[in-house]
Backbone:
């Protein structure tokens, strides 16, 4: 137990036979349960975990009969923790890339009831730029910006960091069966937490990269999750600001987007006329300028209102 609270760590694992043992061995003593979710590995991951279970009674192995993705594996672990009334449930990947010494910093805001969800942020320290592969870092930064807009948690960054802790209240409140099953799960979860007005904070954690090659295609992930962000943004706008509690910021977003679309049409017409007759029509240019500036201002106002509305959900750790 940690500060009188039960702690479980969910370890999603897919073909991690080389590092899953070390991940389990370095788990702190105050962790009550180590829930390893084997996401249909084709190597000896499950065998290694079973061997560790004979040495450490805290180890619990759950195996998927089909591959559900990292989000699906975490969801399975979350359901186990929810059903067993675990006070604080963390997530540590099975590739030993999350330092156990950072876990207390993630647990403290949870056990003190300061937040409902604490997440790691590897970008706070200057070491991240040197330790994280450059393409990963830039891709992560882009996805983090999109997640800020989609989730409403403007104070959090490093959205793809999977080192997190969530409390029992949140696990019992959010619909775990609807969680996104793949790499975009952290982004989807943040949006869901915001819809339910749950408190979130960032905690500085150190980036660690073990001797393994990532199977993640960064370019594909950015486009895939980018499209997911658009869907999640509209989901949050509808659920939070229309269905649950109407807020005029949705009107600002709608009018801003409409004006920017009209500005795009004026811009296309402007280019066509310019190339056709070699002259820039003043009225067309002014109409484009007015719509572009007005639309941008309305979008920025909507973002500002969103920040204000979610200020109570902002916590620092």
Residues:
């Amino acid at each position: 137990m940690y500060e009188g609270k039960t702690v479980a760590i969910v370890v999603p694992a897919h073909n991690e036979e080389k590092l899953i043992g070390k991940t389990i061995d370095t788990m702190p003593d105050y962790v009550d349960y180590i829930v390893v979710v084997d996401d249909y590995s084709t190597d000896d991951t499950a065998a290694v975990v079973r061997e560790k279970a004979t040495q450490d009674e805290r180890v619990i192995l759950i195996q998927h009969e089909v591959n559900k993705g990292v989000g699906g594996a975490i969801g399975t672990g979350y359901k186990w923790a929810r059903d067993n009334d675990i006070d604080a449930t963390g997530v540590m990947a099975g590739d030993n890339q999350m330092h156990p010494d950072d876990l207390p910093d993630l647990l403290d805001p949870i056990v003190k009831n300061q937040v409902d969800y604490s997440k790691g942020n590897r970008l706070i320290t200057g070491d991240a730029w040197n330790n994280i592969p450059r393409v990963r870092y830039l891709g992560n930064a882009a996805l983090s910006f999109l997640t800020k807009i989609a989730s409403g948690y403007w104070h959090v960054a490093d959205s793809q960091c999977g080192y997190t802790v969530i409390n029992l209240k949140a696990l019992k409140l959010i619909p775990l069966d609807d969680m996104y099953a793949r790499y975009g799960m952290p982004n989807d979860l943040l949006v869901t937490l915001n819809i339910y007005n749950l408190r979130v904070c960032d905690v500085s954690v150190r980036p660690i990269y073990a001797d393994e090659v990532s199977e993640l295609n960064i370019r594909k992930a950015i486009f895939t999750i980018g499209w997911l962000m658009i869907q999640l943004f509209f989901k949050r706008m509808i659920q939070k600001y229309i269905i649950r509690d109407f807020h005029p910021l949705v009107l600002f977003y709608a009018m801003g987007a409409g004006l920017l679309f009209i500005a795009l049409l004026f811009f296309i017409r402007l280019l066509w006329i310019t190339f056709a007759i070699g002259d820039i029509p003043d009225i067309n240019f002014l109409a484009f300028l007015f719509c572009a500036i007005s639309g941008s201002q309305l979008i920025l106002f909507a973002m500002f209102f969103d920040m204000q509305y979610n200020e109570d959900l902002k916590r620092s750790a």
